[in-house]
Each structure stands twice: as structure tokens, then as C-alpha cells.
Amino acid sequence: MDQVEAAVDPATFRQLTEEKINDASLILLGNTELINLGVKQGPRMIILKIIEGLNAAVNNDEGRKKEPGPPGLPSKEVCRRMLEENSKFRLNVLLPVLDKGLVPDDKDLRFLNRVACKPFETRIERGGKYPSADEQERLAKDLVELFPQLQYNSTRPEGAPNEWMFFWRKNGTEKGKHSGLIYHRVRNVIKELPAEMHLYRRTTAPRQVHVPTELLQKAEALRIVIATKHEKNRIATEMDECFPLLKLMLAENKSPTEIIRMFPHLVAYNGYIVRLTIRYT
User: Residue 124 CB: number of other CB atoms within 10 A?
Assistant: First the structure.
């Protein structure tokens, strides 16, 4: 950004900094993006020339293919560059929503999770090592460090880490499965592999039938919905759809704490959701 600041007028440079354009995102801009930012033609041509030079320097330095981001960068910067490489995500979610400090809706949140998990997905599909819990947790922490607004949610369980929505070890308990959008995304990618590509296979049949993955995903998405009066009907409807999961947790004698973590809306609306749920038990 130093080259741009020295080459253009202060008003144009201020336009870029107000949109949180930095060294990493500058080289991803094109003529269309600069027009959308309101940059006039004269400064725009200067900026495009600078970007062309920066890209040429990067290409000359790259002697071989490598992972997004040069070695030595903090993991969250590597994550940021990887998100920026998806042009559709960059233009529709990253720049207009996340970089402005706004909280994405469910659709954009899922989009963010898919893009963030893409390196994991590629590795799995190529027969590589499954992403470890540490890797998934690191990615989750990178996302909330890059976009702090993602950690604030009225349905955040007590004691949950900042990154709980994306990855939470054993769902905050001493044993059991992990939870979070990243965990479920990775698990779904693994489940969709051909049988011969699975690295780990069961030697015995499962003790009981698991709840469909789609239902777990729905429950995960539902619990991050803020309990407002406008969402009351939606929450009631989706709680109804998630009832088989609640019934299973009750049958497995899950603790009230575990159940509330999965279904935080049971304590919302002065017991309305509880009364609704009792009708189906």
C-alpha cells in the first residue's frame, strides 16, 4: 500500500483504506472492483499499473507451486489469502460483509465455511491424511481472529471458546464427538468418499443407527440463530424438524447441559419452545 499512497491523491487512498484494502487484498483488485469502490479513472489506471507490477514480482518469486501464502506467514494470514482467492466469495461476502464488521447470515456463513475448508477437502479427496482436531481448531481460531464479529452470538453456550461455532473439542465435555461447522464439513467430505478411499474402517457394526448428517447440520445451524421475536416461528418450525435428534439425546440420557448446548432455544421465549416440544414426546 506504500506505493499506492505515494502515487495517488489522499482522497483516493482514503477510499481504499476505508474499505480495509491492505497489501494482501490490493493485488486481488481489478478494474471492476476499483470502479465499484468509486475510484476515478486517473488514479484507477495508476493503481492497476502498481498491481500489475506487484503481481509480476510475485510470479517471478514463485519458482514452484506452493500452498496459499508464502512460508513464514501466520496461519491466519494464509487463511485470509486463501479466502481472497475465491472471487465469488471475495466480492459477495468478504468485502461487503465480513470486512465491514457485519455478521453474515446463515447462507454466507455456510459459504465461508466451505471456502475455509477447501484445503482440507482437497487433501481428503487426494487420499491424504484426514485433518486433525488441532488443524480444525486452528482454522476455527484463525476465522474468529480475522473476523471478531463471528464470536459474538446470543446463543453462545456458557464457557464455550470464541471459535465454538466452527470447532469445539468434544462439545465442551470430557468425552464424545467434536462439534462445529468445520467438524461437520470435514466429516461429510469423508463420508462421501468411495469406500475404498476411507483411511479408517469399522471392524464391527455401529451399536445404533446415527442421526442423519443433514439433521445434525440443521441443528448446528439452528443453534446460532439469534432468539428474537422475528425468528420465533422459524425456530419453532426447525425445532420440530430437529426433534428426532433431541429424542435421541434424551434416550441416551444426555445431561441437561449437553442438551441445552445443542438446543439453546429451549430456554428462550419463556418456555414456549419447551411446551411445543413436550407435545411431541
Answer: 20
Q: How far apart are the first and last CA of the chain?
A: 61
Are 267 and 223 within 8 A, CB to CB? no
Give the CA dihedral 69, 75, 81, 82, nearest 10 degrees. Answer: 100
| Contacts with 275 (C-beta within 8 Å, 6 or more apart), sequence order | none
Distance CA 252, CA 89 (A): 40
Averaged pLDDT, 2-28:
84
> Who's near 24: CB < 8 A, 6+ residues apart?
77, 80, 81, 84
- How much is the pLDDT for 60? 57
Taking alpha carbons only, the member of 229, 112, 272 closest to residue 181 is 112
Alpha carbons 14 and 17: distance in angstroms, whole number: 5
The residue type of 69 is G
C-beta of residue 145 within 8 angstroms of C-beta of residue 76? yes
Q: Which helix (H) or strand (E) segment is 161 a member of?
A: none
Angle made by CA atoms 183, 184, 186, in degrees to the nearest 5? 65
The rounded distance, in Å, linking the Cα atoms of 143 and 7 is 33
Closest by Cα among 250, 225, 258, 256 to 239: 225
Rounded to whole angstroms, the Cα distance separating 80 from 96 reads 15
Cell output for 271: 418456555
Q: What is the pTM of this model?
A: 0.50
